[in-house]
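Researcher: Sit down with what I've pasted below and flag anything odd:
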Amino acid sequence: MPGSNLKPLVFAALFAALTAAVAPLKIPLGFTPVPITLQTLVVLMSGAMLGPYYGALAMILYVVVGILGLPVFAGGGSGIGAILGPTGGYLISYFVAAYVIGKVVQMRKKPKFIDYVVAMVAGTIIIYVLGAGWGMVVTGLGIYAILAGWVLPFIIGDTIKLLAAAYIAKNINIKRYLR
C-alpha cells in the first residue's frame, strides 16, 4: 500500500462500515439462496473511489469483521460458515472486484464515465464468476442451474447499481481527501 497516510485507512474503514450498513437490506428470492442487496453497489464504489489497494482493504476489513462474528453480512449473517456456505464466494469476490475496479480506473489520468462503467462491468463479472463458481462447488448444481438462479436474475438490477455507482464515483471526488 502506498504511503502511510491515515486518511485512506479511515475511508477504507468507512466503506467497510457502509457495506455493513446496507447488508441488512436484503430481498430474498424464493428460488435461489442469493438475495438482492446493495452490498455490490458499495463494492463497486470502493474500488473506483478509493483505488485498488484501499478499496480492496475496505472489503477485506468488511469480510474479516463478519468472519469474526459481527452480524454484517446480508440479513445479519456472520461467521466462517457464511464464507464456506453457498454464497460465500460472493463475499470473497468483493475484495478482488474492488481491486480490479480500482486498477482499471487508475489506468486513466482523467477517467470518464464510460471508464468507470467498464471497470464496474469487469468487477461485476468477477463477482458473478467467483460467487456463482463457489456456489457450484458447494451445491453441486450444474452451470445452467447456477446461471439461471444465481446470475441471470440479477443482471438488470446489477446494471442499474453499476450505473449508479459509476455516476457517484465519477461525480464525488474523494481522492482529494485521501492525500
The helical segments are 6-22, 39-67, 80-84, 88-106, 113-139, 143-151, 155-171. The chain is about 70% helix and 5% strand.
